[in-house]
Automatic annotation (TrEMBL):
SUPFAM superfamilies: SCP-like. It comes from Streptomyces halstedii. Residues 33-102 form the SCP2 domain. InterPro entries: SCP2_sterol-bd_dom, SCP2_sterol-bd_dom_sf. This is SCP2 sterol-binding domain-containing protein.
């Protein structure tokens, strides 16, 4: 089971990957939205912003998200690490329910390029 520190590191790696992305992925990462990522097996939520093509983690707290972010993710710590390491396909994990992504309809349309990557 991934630790809280490994999950935070995975989010930092994902942020770096987004910052270096090109094309449609870069466009999707350019959104400016509040973001939460609930790690279900650890029952911890990382909160921050997707802005300037990066994920800026501002805080973490025990339990589910306290406030409703504009983009909300939920998954296990192992799945987060596997996604970032390229061992788990996001679209397949989302389609099977291993990863939950909630956002407004327009944001989902914009984020679809991330789902295909």
């Amino acid at each position: 089971m991934a630790t809280k520190e490994e999950c935070r590191s995975a989010l930092d790696t994902l942020s770096g990957n987004l910052a270096g992305a090109n094309g449609d992925v870069r466009g999707a990462a350019a959104l400016d939205r509040s973001l939460s990522c609930h790690i279900r097996d650890l029952d911890v939520t990382f909160t921050g912003r997707l802005a300037d093509g990066r994920i800026h983690v501002l805080d973490n707290s025990e339990g589910p998200p306290r406030e409703k972010a504009q983009i909300r993710l939920a998954m296990t710590g192992d799945d987060l690490v596997a996604l970032v390491n390229g061992e788990l396909n996001f679209a397949k994990a989302w389609g099977s329910g291993r990863v939950r992504l909630e956002a407004g309809f327009r944001d989902l349309l914009t984020l679809r390029s991330l789902l295909r990557s």
